[in-house]
Amino acid sequence: MSVASANETITVPAGDGGRSIDDLLSSISASRLATFHQCRLRFWFRYLSGIVKPKPAALHLGSSVHETLKFWNRARWHRRTPSLRDLHDAFSGAWSDLKESEPVEFEDEDGEKQTGWKLLETYFRESPIQPDERPEAVEVSVEADLSAHGLPRLIGILDLVRPGGRIVDFKTSGKTPDPEQVAHTTEGQTTGYALLYREATGHAESGIEIHTLVKTKAPKLIVTALPPATEVQVTRLFRGIESYVAGLEREDFVPSPGLQCASCQYFNDCRRWS
Predict the structure, then answer these.
(1) pTM
(2) Domain of 206: which CATH number?
């Protein structure tokens, strides 16, 4: 498969870097579905082209924070209470390991790293989760068979499940989130998590929480509590997956210019697309 640009044709060698359409049609994740509906050409660049781009510093920061929260959650699952020093060491180790495994675009690495740790300090100080609360599950890979609906397997990882079946997802953001916008923009992801939880446990989730760490001058923690997924939301998710399948089958990879382009890794590649 190839995409012609004004200056060149980018060709995807078989089995060299990029994944095949057949592979991407065999299963679906919330992140792939969101990328496809945000911009189909960006989806092509990210999942099919085989083009490797340095990771933006903001994503590296978010991944390092996520790994540290995973360490904290797993420690509580094992009934351990890590010290702040333990958590800082986990954060520093995650920062270094992730940087070694994938190139990152930094303008001020020390500043980004300090920001990441300040976010975590804020989280550990203000989290609604008590240090002695034992999770129901941490970082569990789950899948749901949707073949009865004519759809691919749904796959995903649940960051955290609190006692009683309350699903938690962690995010970092550069601005304070609006609760209604969070509910809307994360609906596909949270509904997918609900289906995965139901498949794994045989019963419905009690609710969903989005824990957003905000990178303001004085870091903030915003917790958005959402009710269990509704049948209407499940239907909307299924229609979104149907659109994904149809788009991949007809190789519909067109750009969707908008405000999101300013932070896209593939901006220059997209400008050459034709």
Answers:
(1) 0.90
(2) 3.90.320.10
